[in-house]
Amino acid sequence: MLARGGAMPCEHCHCFLGGLQTPEDFQPELYQAGVTLFEQGDPVHAGFIVCKGAVQLEERTAQGSRVILKFLGASDSLIDEALSDYTKHQVAAQTVRDSQIIRLPRASLLRMLSESPHLCQRMVLELARQYTFWIRRLVIALDGDLGVCERLALALLDLSSTLGIHTSEGLLIDLELNSQQWADYVGCRRQTISQAFSNLEKREWIERRGKRVLLKDVEALKQFVRPYI
Predict the structure, then answer these.
(1) In the structure, how many helices (H) and strands (E) does the chain have?
(2) What is the pLDDT of residues 168-200, one digit of tens each?
(3) The CATH homologous superfamily of the domain defined by 28-141
(4) Contact partners, residue 160, CB within 8 Å, separation at least 6
(5) What is the rounded radius of gyration, in angstroms, for the C-alpha atoms of the chain?
(6) For the structural domain made of 145-228, what CATH number should be given?
(7) In a 3-state reduction of DSSP, which class is residue 10?
(8) Does 53 or 64 have the greater pLDDT score?
(9) Strands of 99-105's sheet, edge to edge?
(10) What are the extents of the domains in the chain?
(11) DSSP state of 85
(12) Cα dihedral 155→179→211→154 (10° resolution)
């Protein structure tokens, strides 16, 4: 039987473990910004759920360049590698804000899955959601006709769905990223991403607030990239 650690205590997280009885080692821990959860190539020992904060997933190419693949926000998880036969992490993960994260030891997670059909159902839905995201990212990456402004708009909309805060002025992406991080996420040079930001600002769709971005007209951004959302 499962160890009765109790239902997950997170107040604002709506992850797939919400309301379920969980093992005692499934407890949220605090991580400061800039902490590496694991490096690309490290052994896979656990999955992770973000309760609060933000985590950056990145990959190093064979040429040594960095590609930022995704930012995880509250309720997002990284469990696919822990559930697969991977022995090494295919990406690296680092906190980019002070975060509260649940570490899911691989053995405990697999044991809980074998004992809880309800969790299995939730896990399938979670993995399907992640699969849809990665397929969409792949389609965008392979579309040679999609310009940098469109790619940036899609990135902003993606981030606003997980890290957006509603304000009287619009939707504020509560994440501080520099120009190089934006370039690594969108997939272009730093100079090019700066030009794309300026383009969207001139249209009065967004506004840069230091290292954060305010989406002033979300509907206009959606119309701009309608075929891809």
Answers:
(1) 7, 12
(2) 999 999 999 999 999 999 999 999 999 999 999
(3) Jelly Rolls (2.60.120.10)
(4) 171, 173, 215, 218
(5) 18
(6) 1.10.10.10
(7) coil
(8) 53
(9) 28-31, 99-105, 46-52, 77-78
(10) 28-141, 145-228
(11) S
(12) -10
Tell me how far apart the alpha carbons of residues 44 and 118 are, in angstroms, rounded to a whole number: 25
User: In whole angstroms, what separates CA 200 from the centre of its chain?
Assistant: 23
Query: Alpha-carbon distance 22 to 43, whole Å?
Result: 24
Q: Which of 73, 35, 58 minimizes the C-alpha distance to 173?
A: 73
CA 51 to each of CA 78, 121, 127, 193, 206: distance values in angstroms, whole numbers, following the listed order: 12, 20, 17, 30, 28
- For residue 222, CA distances in Å to 47, 144, 202 come to 33, 20, 17
Contacts of 108 (CB under 8 A, 6+ apart): 23, 25, 26
Structure tokens at 147: 């310009």
Distances in Å between the alpha carbon of 192 and those of 47, 57, 198, 200, 217? 35, 22, 10, 13, 22
Helix spans in the chain (H):
80-83, 106-115, 117-142, 148-163, 179-186, 190-202, 218-224
Q: Give pLDDT tens digits for 6-17.
A: 444 454 456 767
Indicate the DSSP class of residue 101.
Answer: E
